[in-house]
Structure formats: structure tokens, C-alpha cells
Amino acid sequence: MELELRHLRILCAIADLGGAGRAAAALGHTQPAMSTQLRRIEGILGEGVFTRSSTGMELTHYGAQVVGHAREILALADNLTRLRYSPTPAATRRLRLGAINTPVVPVLLDSLRETFPDLVISVSSVYATGDLVNLLESGELDAGLGCDYPGLPIQHSPKLGHRAIRTVPVFVATPAAHPLGHRLEIPLEELSTDTWFVASNDGVGWPGAFYEACRAAGFMPAVTHEFHVLDQLQSMIAKGLGVTVVQPTVCPADGVLIKPLAGDPLWQRHLLMWRRDLVDASVVEAVHHHAVRTHCQLLAQAPHFQKWVARTYAPLRPSDGTRKTLPGSL
To answer: How many domains does the chain have?
Structure first.
């Protein structure tokens, strides 16, 4: 028996979704059939691609290399006119990683240390995704964790690749004593008289996306402060000095509430970007895989996000009895 393209798609689906059951649903198979196929694939390869745990299925070091090459093969099959670069193994020994303000970095680095013990990673904090793109384009960084916004997709040259990690709604942080603090979700228009802390230009659509949402809600903030140091920002919010939008993975400080905005008027897509000529496919696969898993773990630990999921996606729709699907890493 030889590997086929469908086998490679199965491996990629399991890696992206973290389990054979979820991959089976996405590809239209039954879970037993998916598990049987996985056993056959691993039998052909002669080594396990995944390890099983209580939280799902994790790629092994070997598996990260297999799935990385599988993605290359599938890309070539889908577009035979596109050439892919295959760097030498030495290119995988050092990774210069840039990251915007994201909570995934500590856990991600720990996971990568176990997956690639011989990979030396140096991390640079970069505020703006636009600056991150420029550093990648110039070759000063190998990979980066950034973001963009629906309707404003990231723009870069063919030298770079990018892959979505997760698309999530943007929440609002208010003082615990805020008059709307008792609400399950807060309409953006009812915050029209509040003072807002608004992060500065990130080069890919912020704060334009925020002000556009405000215009759609019928107002423009009368008073704003430009500030984005999260710890100090939460301290000022706790003192009642204003409100701000935050990622749903943020853990609120004492005196701060984090609530969803009614109707989810703002969304953010978290991304992995990399230089195609500097980063090996197996490293890209490992970084993406662990970034997705880490982001999912942080969201699972955020009560305000889980309550939003339960209200928004769990209820059965009376029309057809099906459940809405939570956006993932698409």
C-alpha cells in the first residue's frame, strides 16, 4: 500500500483540528473509519505521527516533519505551476521569532522546546503587525505572530507565507463598577459617552476597524487615550478612568470586567507568518500546531469567553436542530 493525497489530507486535518473525531466530521468520514485510516498511514510510514492525550492528539517530532511535507505536496498538487523552496536542514537550527502582544508566547516556546530540542529560538517583541511584516520582508526575522481583521487581510510579498491561527471576537474591558457591568454582553453604542483607551496604529487596520465599528453604532468616542501596555491599562480601567477593547484570552485584573460586545461588531484573526526561504516546513508546522493548541487552551481557561460560546454557539437552532460552528483557524 502506498501513500495517497487523501492520506496526506487526513494527517493535515487531524493536526489542524486536534483529534480524529473532529477531522472525521470535517472530511465527511466516520470516526472508526478515520482511526482505521490513521493506523494504516502510520503503518506505511513505520512510525507514529501523533501521540494521544486527555486533551487530544499532539504531533510528534517526526509527525511535525511529515505533516509539514504533506502540506507542501498538497500545495503542489493543487497548483502545479507554483514552485516551493526546500531549505537545507541547517535552516531549521535557529528561529528568529517576532510577536505582537499575544499571551501564547510562553506556552508556545515551552512546547517548541520539547518538539525541537535542537532549535534555538530568539524572540522579539514587536507592537505593530505592520512592523512585523517589514522585519520579515527585510530578513531581520524568520517568523512572526501577528493579526489582521475581517475585510482587511494581511498584505505581503510572495517571499512570505501566512496561516491563520484563530479568529475571535474582540471583547471590552470595563471597571467592575461600570453601570453596564451587570449585562451579559454590552452594546457598543451604550459605551458612546465613555472615555476609551485605544491602541495606536498597527499598520494593518487598527484602530481604523475600531472607529468603523463605532461609526456603524452611531457615534465616535469623544475622549480617547492612546495606550497599549496591558498591565498599566487594566490598573487605570480598575480605577474607572475608561474602557478598552481586548482579546478574549485576557485575564481580568481585580476591579476589571471583561464582557463580549453585543452582536460581535469587532473580530480579530491571529496569524503565523514566515519567510519561505528561511524556515523549514516542519518548523512552520510545529509552530502553527502549538500556537493553535495554546490559543485554544487559553480560550478554554477564560470564563468570559466560554460563557459567550455557550450563549452564541451551543443552543440548538429550532429551524433544523443543528448547532452553529465556532470559527476556528480558518
So the answer is: 3
